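G., before I forget:
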Amino acid sequence: MCGIVGILGKTPVATNLVDALRRLEYRGYDSAGIATVESGTLVRRRAEGKLRNLEKRLLTEPLEGHTGIGHTRWATHGRPTERNAHPHMTAEVSVVHNGIIENFRELRADLEAKGHTFDSDTDTEAVVHLITHELHAGKSPVEAVRAALQHLQGAFALGIIFAGEDDLMIAARQGSPLAIGHGTGEMYLGSDAIALAPFTDVITYLEEGDWAVMHRSGAEIFDKDGVRVDRPSVKSVASSLLVDKGNHRHFMAKEIHEQPEVISHTLANYMDMVSGSVRFPELGIDLSKINRVTISACGTAYYAGLVAKYWIEKVARVPVEIDVASEMRYREAPLPADGLAVFVSQSGETADTLATLRYCKANGQRIASIVNVRTSTIARESHAVLPTLAGPEIGVASTKAFTCQLSVLACLAIAIGRARGSINAAQEIELVKGLTELPRHIAGLIRNEQPFIAIAQELSKARDVLYLGRGTSYPIALEGALKLKEISYIHAEGYAAGELKHGPIALIDENVPVIVVAPEDDLFDKTISNMQEVAARGGQIILISDAPAEKISCKLAAHIHMPKVSAFTTPLLYAIPTQLIAYHTAVVMGTDVDQPRNLAKSVTVE
Ligand code: AGP
C-alpha cells in the first residue's frame, strides 16, 4: 500500500516528512519522494528503493521549504523507478496519490491531445495535468481541484500542493483512507494516524468522498458534493500501537473499510494496469498443462477457495477438487501426477491447512499458497507464495483478507485460462476491467451503513437465520452465515438455494429471516422461485441484489440494492453486505466483535 504524508510547517519540513514516511514503511513500498514549496517554486527529490536512498539524496541536495508532501510508492502503474516515483508534478502543482485512477488512460489521451506532456507511466500523473489544465483555464487552486475531482474515477487518496502557495495543501479521499493532524500553527496529512504520531495525536479522519482545504490555521472539509461538513477530531493512540482502529469502534469495522484500498493493492500486484492484463508470478509449473487443481483451506479461507472452484472451472476449464483441510488431511485423497495444489490461509499457520499442504507435497503436487503473512509456516513450506496485501488483520472475523484472497484467486483463474487458451486476450481484458472497478463500487457500498444497521435490529431478534445463494453466490451465502454466527452467536446456515426443497424449507416460518445473495445473473430467476417458496411460508426475505424491483415478484422484508458489476466479480462485491450485516448485528447483540468467545485468530492446533 502506498503511504501519503504532508506538512504545513513553521520550519523546514523535509526531515519530518521522511520520518513520517518511515512510520508507513509497514505498508510496503519500492520507491519514495518528497516535494516542497521553496520561495514559491515546487522542488522535488525522489529515489528508487528504500527511504535511506532518498535520505542520501537529501544530504547532497537538501530541500528547505516549510510546506511539503511525501510518498512511499507501492508500484501499481509503471515500474518502481525514480521516473515513476511520487510526487508527480508540473511547474504549477505537485501530487502524491494512493490507490487507482481507473480512467487514467482516457484522461491522459485527452490531456495529451490538449498539449500536455507526460513523463511517467503512472495513473497519478493524469491527476497532476488535469489540475494544471484547470489552473491554466484561470481557476484558483481550490476550484481547480474541485473541478478535477469530478473527472476522476476509482478508489484513491490525494495530497496536493501548489507553486506560489506556501500556506495551502489540499487532500481528497475516495476509497483510500486519509487523516488530518492538528498541530500548533502547523497542520499535517497522513494515510493514517501512525504517520502523524510524532507530530500530533489530534486527528480528523476524512470520510468517504471528502476533500479538505488545509492552511496552518486549520482545515475546511467538503463532502463529495462540495458541501462544507464538520468531521470530529479524535485523540489517536497510534503513537503506542503500530496498528490502530482509526476512527472506527472495532478493528473489524476498520478492516471492512480498508477493503477498497487493500483490494486495489492486491489486484495491482497481479496485474499490469497499463495493458489491463494479468501479470501472474511463475509458479514453477506449466499452467497450460495442469489437468486438475486441488484447493484446501479452513473456514472463511475455504469459502474463498470454493468461489475459485467455480471461477477456475468456468474460465480455465480445469477441474477443481476442493475440501476443508481438516477432512482432506486424513482421507488419503489420490492426487494427479504434476497437479497444482493451492492453499489459502490468512495467518499461514492453520494446523489443518499446513498438514494437508504436507500431504499434497509428499504426493508430488506443486504447492502454491495464498497467505497474508509472507513469513508464515505455510508460506515457507510452499513452492510458490502468492501474498494478499491486506495488511495486518486484527479482527478474528476475517473480512479484508477474504476479499484479498478472492482477488488473488480471480487472477489465478484468469492466468490459467490464458495459459490454456480457454480465454483470449480480449476476454482477459474484460475480466480484469471488472476487477479494477470493484474498489470504487465497494467504497460506494460502505459509504452508507444505515440499511445494514436497520437489518441488524431485526436479525438480532432471530434464533435462526438462513443464507441462500446459487453459483458463486453459494460460497458467499456460506461465508455470510459464518460471519453472522461467529460474531453475533446467532445460529445461521448457508445453503445452495436449490437445496431448499430438500429439507431446509421445513425451518421456514415468520421468525426465520432468510438472506438471499442473488445478483441478476443467469441463475436469478431460479432463485426468485426459491424466494417465492420462502415468502409463501411467511419467511422474512432480505435480498442482496442489483435486480430492479419489477424483476422481484415476491414480498421482501428488505432489499440491499447493489450496483451492477460483471458476473465474474459479484462474489467480491456481495461479500461486503454480508460482512456489514454480521458486524452491525454483533454490535446490537453487544458481543465482543473483535474477539468473539471461544475463537482465536489463528487455529494452530487441530
Ligand atoms: C474467519 O472469519 C474465521 N475467523 C476462520 O474461519 C478463519 O477463516 C479460519 O480459521 C482459517 O484461518 P486462516 O485463514 O488463518 O488459515
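The first strand starts at residue 3 and ends at 8. Residues 450-589 form a domain with the Rossmann fold fold (CATH 3.40.50.10490).

More on Monday.
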